[in-house]
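=== RUN LOG ===
request id: a7f3
mode: sequence -> structure
chains: 1
length: 362
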Amino acid sequence: MRTVGVEEELLLVDPETGEPQAMSAAVLASAAHDGTDPPVFEAELHNQMVEFATHPQSGMEELRAEIGRCRKEAARHAGDSGCAVAALATSPLPVSPSVATGRRYQWMAEQYGIATQEQMVLGCHVHVSVESDEEGVAVIDRIQPWLSVLSALSANSPFWQGQDTLYSSYRSRVWQRWPSAGPTEPFRSAERYHRRVAEMVATGVILDEGMIYFDARLSRNYPTVEIRVSDVCLRADTAVLIATLARGLVETAAREWRAGVDPAGHSVSLLRLASWRAARSGLNEELLHPATMRRMPAETVVRALLEHVEDALADSGDLDRARETCAELLRGGTGDRVQRELLERTGNLRDVVTACVRRTQV
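=== RESULT ===
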């Protein structure tokens, strides 16, 4: 069975005011005292963020337990440093992001200017194991139309600099400002994929292969496909759903490749429109159906995704739970709806953040 690993980025905030705090160095120093090897927590682009990565897991219950443990540990280290963690993909409150030190991050700040300053957005990246680069590229080619549905299911960033953006996932719109970000056309082979990456690096517009910000890419460090379209999810159960569906998509795509089924071949222009639609409305309105690229109710599109990966999820024993969690999200909403309902109830973005701090560890 394919293994799955998750990377989550968490926002560091003042536990009383909800304002973002540039405390990543202190939190990482606290974590370093645990002596975990390799380290679980890492610095990110901005000092108001911290990232953790799970170990590869075969079972989703084990993955859920590890995400919960890492979130609790992050909260403990943050508390030791005088702050708290929130699984929010953007800060609801106004913030002046502080770019971390280090050659890489400073290069990005100089190269991209205000776009780097504004990239204080927090995502959930899923790594799914593949047997080879050839299989990995075949998977990337075939999962492209479905990635916008993962974005909708994870939507958790309705606010930006103290304002309602009218988007469900504004993080994804900010992320698109990177020059290498977004969907890709079919590569057809690992050789063509690697040639494209080399050509992009050779332009000098990006620093290295690590700045290939495709929606789905081959990991440069692990034998995995890395799917990078999701907001960090307010609830750990939603993150597990995203990982479950990501593995289902990878396994389904690999089976299609072995059976000689061609990629859908939607243009990048249409894929970008599907991505925008998902970011704008999440599960609250319509999405573009991955097969037809026409607007349909979100529930219909989510059901189509579950049907697409049904065999793979049934084989891994994840089908029933995936259906249940999708139904819960369609009924109760993703993080964007939760945040807006909290604001309507409390009238204060500070209370939205502090409530989400508590929900991060649930």
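=== NOTES ===
The chain has a mean pLDDT of 96.
Residues 119 and 175 are 7 Å apart (CA to CA).
=== END ===
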